[in-house]
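A sample follows:
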Amino acid sequence: KKKRMEEKSELDVDDLLEQLGIPESKRDTIRSMPRAKLEQMLKMQTEKSKKSSDIDGPASLLQRIDKNVTLASLRELRICLNSNPIAWIVGFKNANGQMRLLELLTKFIEQANSESQNDNNSNQISDSLEMLYECLLCFKGLLNTKYGMRAALELEDLCKSIAGSLLRSNTKIHRISLDLLTAIGLFSPEGHRNVLSAWSYIKLCKRNKHRFQYLIEIMTNSYEQKNLECSLSCMNLINTIVNSPEDI
């Protein structure tokens, strides 16, 4: 019975370390802390997790976005993803937030493409791109933690959707999308494979002969326009593509 309690305690501590986003190099130090200190940390994290599901938590914010998505509500979500503790991200995942965010991203990509083809109103196109950009920034906030990255990788079409936003001729959109694909490709072999698959999708969309032809076009155009930040994002992604996560 004592052994079972010790095993359960070890599992709780590992879960705590994961939720707090503690690096592997520092976890042994925390595991060696006095039991009373560990129990206090576990209690505090449990209380934070409970708060993540109350009226001010991610579930409530997602419900408001579902009812009426606005640029302001997406900015609020982005701020929450960047500034709240891991417990909030856990609550966001438990509310299926990553899937709902992906649905919004797909929606705004389709909306921007439709307006580009059927409407010459530049203000409407700008609004759609702004919403699309804010969705990408929300994903950037989610990917900032290991827990959030793992939650995002559960989305089979995430890289495909992010790559799809590159089809818009907007350097601001290009840069954030390239940076997101780079982060995913660096995280794990699975992420690396997903990024490669996303560029196969782009090849089909653009009817290119080569898989990374469009990436080179973006980098060339950025360089010619003296947009060095976007060029650097392209180079970072190329470095990620040609190297596996283990090599890097």
Residues 1-11, 120-124 have pLDDT under 50 and may be disordered. The radius of gyration is 21 Å.
